[in-house]
Please model this.
Amino acid sequence: MISAIQWEWTKPEMLGWLVLAIPLLVWFHFRSLSDFPLVQRWVSLALRAAIVLLLAVALSGLVLLVTTSRRMMVVAIDTSESIDEAAKLKATELVNALKAKTDSLEDVELRFLTFDREPGVSFDHWPQVNPPADSVNNHAGDSNVDETSVDENVADANVASTIEADETVADEEVTVAKVDSETPPERLGTDIAAAIRTAVASIPPSYVPSVVIVSDGNSTTDDAVAAAAAGGVPISTMPLPQRSTPEVQLAQLAAPAQVRQGEPFYIEVVVNSNRDASGYVDLYRGDIKIGDDNQKPIDVKAGETKFRIRQSIVGQRQVTFAARLRGFGQSDTLLDNNEAMAIVAASGRPRVLLVDPDVDQTDSLRWALDEQKIDVEVRPPAGVPRDLAELQGYECLILSNVPATDMTMRQMDIVRTYVQDLGGGLVMLGGDQSFGLGGYYRTQLEEILPVRSNFEKEREKPSLAMVLVIDKSGSMGGEKIELAKDAARAAVELLGPRDNIGVIAFDGQSYWVSELRSASDKGYVMDQISTIEASGGTTMYPAMDDAYQALASASAKLKHCIILTDGVSSPGDFEGIASEMAASRMTVSTVAMGAGASEELLQDIARLGGGRYYFCDDPQSVPQVFAKETVEASKSAINELPFMPQLVRPTQVLEGIDLELAPLLLGYVVTRPKPTSEFILASENGDPLLVWWRYGLGMTVAFTSDAKARWGAEWLAWPDFGPFWAQIIRHAMRKNDSRGVFVEVSSDDATTTVMLDAVDPQGNFLNEQPTSLTVIDPKLKTSKLTMSQIAPGRYEATFTTAERGSYQLDLAQSRGAADAVRQARGLVIGYPEELRMLPTNEAQLREIAEVSGGRFTDSVETLVQSDERTARRGVPLWPYLLMAALILFVIDVGIRRIEIPSIF
Amino acid sequence: MNLVSPIHWWWLLLALPIILFYILRTRLRKQPVATLLFWVKLFDEKRQRSLWNRLRHWASLLLQLAFLGLVVTALVDPLWSGQRENARQVVIVLDNSASMQTTTTDGTTRFEAACESAMEILSGLRDGDEIALMTAGSTERVVVGMTDFAPAIRDAIREIDVTDGPTRVREAIDTARRLTRSPDRREIVVISDFCFDAPELLDPSKDLRLVAIGQSVENAAITSLAVRRSLVDPIGYSALVVVKNFGESNVECRLTFQLDGALVDVIPIQIPAGGTVQKTIVKASADGGILSAQIRHDDGLAIDNQALAVLPRRPPIEVVLVTDEPSVYLESVLKAIPLVDLSTTSEVPEAAPENGFVVLHRVAPATLPTGRVLAIDPQSDSQWWKLGDEITQAIVAKQDPESPLLPHVQLLNVSLPGARALDVDSNATPLLTDASGATLMASVVRGEDRVVVLATNLDDGDLPLRIAFPVLMTNAVNWFLHRTGELQRALGTGELAEISSAGYARDQSSQNNESSQSNEWAWMDAADNIAPATRGVNGLLVGPADHVGIMHFGPRKQLQRLADDAGDGDRGAIDTSELERVAVNLASASESDLRPRVEIASSDPAFAGSGRRSIWFYLTLVALGLIVGEWFLYQRRIVG
Model:
């Protein structure tokens, strides 16, 4: 039918040549000198004009649009983590069958595409050859292909790797290896929607399009069906079987997000398995394992198995429950999905964690606070929380005479994050192991406390001569020697101008880095310390002897030596020299850096030398040890004279407390207030007694005396002892006011949304309240977000939670002039959804096929059935036009040579 | 040199007939004449040019053979060196987001200008180049896959409509990169006004070419509208609207609220340059409907001057008053509460109505109804309380300040004659107590059951004379129905969202229970495009919608009927009871900000290559010139 013929001109402007050429032809026709008969000349003109026309039309890019039923079928193959080797084998079989079928059909062209969280590029061939074995785990269709591949060959290589993986199925089945997923977490996932979009897009318009999705249908995104509906192309779906390699997974650890104190609740553990298996389910409450030590294995049946454990929370604000699977042996292939966690928050009285080395001495404070309706949990320094989730269970942390050396750097980091970003409270009480005496100089905690641990105020104190003996042997190389130098510098910084300092470094021999000299020349000593470089062996005795000799000749009243080593020294009379030093009124402290040091010897030296022994497993803590030693040796930081607290700055916090009636305190640690701190109480010397300030979102308080029998003995009987501490701690603690606030946290894929509803006591929505959300990720990285108001009384923020682990959230809403209303929440992100063992999602595959007009089938025959659809293909006509012009040209030449009338 | 069709060299054989025709040159005709005198003279004059006469014919042959050679060489289609390798794979990413509706000074829209740019790119294609077309508004879409047939792209550009959706340029670029199989030859051309967040992060140095469209235009927009039912007022609602000024000058305009077309409020607003105004209105309506907010302001973009929100309907509250002694006062108080549908009976029902509660007034039921119960002056014990002796002079000494039942209720020192002490367990919350500590009123929550008991005789005291009692009853209604402030969030264009739908949930459960066929669920956007809605975890997945307005969702048949009748303009006549509605707004600050974020200089094509056209084209062009020239030479007898 003529109406069915369609033309397209790609460069119609080229027809403009006709406007120039045809008149020229005609003009010269009339100006012709030819003596041919007129008819022949007209025929010649017509022929020449036709040739010109044909050439011009060829130049104009005339294209004939022909109807075609030639199909392009893009087969998108799921290669995500949920597709195991058996499923890959099935996919390969399907593809091979499809290829064999279409090879016999002329009107079907096949293309292939692999996808997981992202689709790859499409490629033409599905090779039958086996590639080298080392490409087993290469990922077909990797997005990096875009950046690295030069041409289509790369795509072929990707396919090859898929095939190879398929070929190894048999071996893999026999020796089921324990596999942690090798796919990077950001690639774990299945995005069928993106695969559909890419597959549809890769079909040129000159083909009848069709797409085949070969997948288990478990998309980790929501929009697969929407993409199928919007694609405008029939999408057929072929199901792949669910993971058949032996697998046990912890599908869910269900727990209520919020309970009341003491309220019983159930923790539900859901285990999925694809065969009967036996193993252990370990359930942890915080770090403590729940259940018997003689745990018996449990049997899980193929399918879903649930366990329920009754729990309640008493005296804690937040508890992290974790469940782990172990001991399932050959029944479990993937290890990544064997763990799940849940955080349960408990409402109730405020909770305070009191850390004190003398747990027995804390009773007075504990009882006093209990009377004031504050729950106190007392722990020794070893119990300082090691993760943020645990610390989040308390509104305030009280460190009572806890030295910095009893904490790791990470623990101090956690405390700082807890205060600065999560609004927690920190109270440090004085004692002989607190502030400077506890080695807090230059630590993260000193940074957040409202007082400084060093002090410039010169008081009457004995002068100190100190020699630092530092191991510089080869084993100290790298970070260790740098930290040792930092430690030495910190010690020098803490000395006063009347003190003397000397530094000896030793390896196989002893070297004076800096002779014993006045600490007023700190710059020189520090420069000298910087020159220490690690090398050589470990011979400690000569260095100790040098230190002894130098200190013996010094005139200072206090003489102290600190020895740092990480190895085992060559033999020497260490006990003898330590005793001699002690006899000469010198003290010797020793620091063992790491487990390789001869701890026993160092302990003996410290004991005989009348000093202290430290073991630093973490080299980062060495500077704290030196700082603590220096302050302690100088005996300058403690003032143990009875004094009356002096009110420096009246405050609402101490309202109702009559400080004039307060008994005497018997001592305190000397510190220096920081410039912007609120200096509330002072000693009679004007040194800080009670200072606080706001640090980040939280509050830190320094009380330089103590709350126990040593310095506060008389206070314990003071009627206002309880109210005094309760009011200070309430001031410092995180304000966890849940009235009128409702928080909901929901996570989807790698995004978490936090929603906060705020109403006033009358039930009216609170609008336009500045609301912020602080998020601490599992790596303690902090981000602060503004929650925007999205509806009356409702505020929302969204953030990415790609990292697996527990997140701590702190929501703060300002309420006019009053303090902000705060809410703390915990959030656990488990293993990626892709690792969840799910049955083939036939419903989704059917829906994709249904909405797009495709078929849900595993029959290759059905897939290749042709349909009524056609496409338009453009056929360029310029070669045919040129051919026609050539033929006409030959005729034209002939006409010039043959006189037409003579023919007739 | 590579030849595409070397077989066409056979056409050179046409040289044989041309040479043959040359040999068979036309014989001179015999013409008898009277004398040769003049011919001899003429012959002598022309002799001196005889050499040219001989060459003239050779030249003619050469020209003819040259033409043949040119055309045949064109036919074999030789390629430039590297032509195949240098052929580009161009993807045009055309931004058809909402901001592209902005009208420029010459009256055209940014989108029209973008289409023109796309056409220019199309005309600049070289032979052998492949091209694909994508749009990046609302969602990224591949309009035409990779093809070497430019007219298909040209036609597609003409058919693209601008959407009301946000810009998805980044997603489109990712897809474009997957479309092209040879990164070396890839060129992605983004034609956009770059009104989206952080366009400076697009790196034009690689395979990306940015073509910026449009100038800075001032605009004011409603960036958020949400309406929410009140927690305390049975028919009240609050609406929050946020209006932003994306311009350098202050904007003064009126903000108009309408509910189902009826004017609700008009607020004059002043928005400073670059500033934001947030307004909350509190109004009342039991029926709900479509709430629209509109600013009357002539600016760059019209669609963001209006936003819609769906206000859920508040159903009537069924209150069953069970009493043997009708109390006009109590009935009046309950009836006065908005939405309360009061019925009075003497029979104690087994359960409270689903959307209401039971009031037991001076009755002594054997068992209380399940659900929500308000017991006033009970005459017997129940599972929730035990009645003590009558208190001689009951005066309220303490009331729970935190109970949601007692806001705005002041009953301290109020005498309650005939009150009896209530003995309630520890799960109950005492609300009113007298000086001796006896509980006069308490509330209990256990599971789904909520009970309030007030152990006093309404008729004897002065409670009826106080405003506190009606307020208490209103509080009780709110507490029983446990309102959370129903909020149906409006969707943004281009957003895929899961919506919980009561109709869908019913449909699914009926399918599960009766194994019947469920409805085919779909959604329809404001432009009457119907698309399937799919199952989500907790509801229906709808979207992404390209157009602002009201989206309907429900059984596809009803939607189809609604769409079919839309042309008649008589939608009110159609039963849409099973259809649910959700508002779709632009609500995108980045899309409404029509000022350029960064200076983006339109860049040149990244790939410079050999000629734009194939060799055959130039050969044909020369042949065309040659054949016209040869005509001139022949007709003027310069060649033979």
Summary: DSSP finds 24 helices and 41 strands in chain A. The longest helix of chain A spans residues 38-59.
